[in-house]
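Intended use. Records such as the Formate dehydrogenase subunit gamma entry shown here are meant for training and evaluating sequence-to-structure methods. They are not intended to support clinical decisions.
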Amino acid sequence: MNRDDEKRNRLGQRMMLRYPTSTRINHWTMALSFILLALSGLAFFHPPFFFLSHTLGGPVWARILHPFIGVLFFLLFALMAVSHAGNNLPIRNDVRWMKQIKDVLANRDEKVPPIGKYNPGQKLVFWLLVLCVPTLLITGVLMWRPWFAGYFPVTVVRIASLLHALAAFGAIVTIVIHIYAAIWVKGSFGAMIRGFVTHAWAKHHHPLWYDDTIKRERPRPDAKTPIKRDDPVA
Ligand code: HEM
């Protein structure tokens, strides 16, 4: 039997792996750097938010560190985006799932079309970030003084700073929605903290991903205890 399937939670439910350790470390480092970037960025954006510059040790340090943390954030995001892109491609059932959002919200599972590892809302968040994060990097480099800004005409730097603010606004709103959804769907925080979800959670929220994972983890011919599709503890 697969090592991950042997894991059970306190209630004896079988657990399955959703995020390996490397993905979780990447995600939480990215989340922390995003929070620092958002707070220090708001401090530069408008005087009432100036006090937020203290999150990075005051205005001078905030100005120095913000772009470096931005580059780190971009690299971490790029790693995550590359490994998650496949699971965020739209599938036919996504449209039906969206149309039946009332059944989804009312937990009427029998009526809801099965979806894969991510639901259409999560996919939308993913692609919005794929749009905003590279925009933030490119426009950030264009206005990064004293290293790069001097190489570009002042109009380019001005347009870059406008686009930077728009992309930052888009990313912050998207991440607030992302956090709200993570709190709202019970069990998803556990997935990103401990890495595991119960079989029941996976079947309920992401049935096609559940089926695929179970198929992939079907016992090898030499395994002694086969995994049953409808194991009562799942
Ligand atoms: C404090 C802030 C954050 C919290 C509480 C949070 C929470 C979570 C949770 C619980 C999941 C697992 C969802 C599931 O598997 O169903 C997740 C997945 C994910 N998070 Fe976050 N997150 C935060 C910040 C971020 C940031 C800043 C980014 C990127 C800029 C990000 C990008 C992602 C991505 C790409 C996934 C995988 C889902 C997908 O590909 O659509 N998260 N997050």
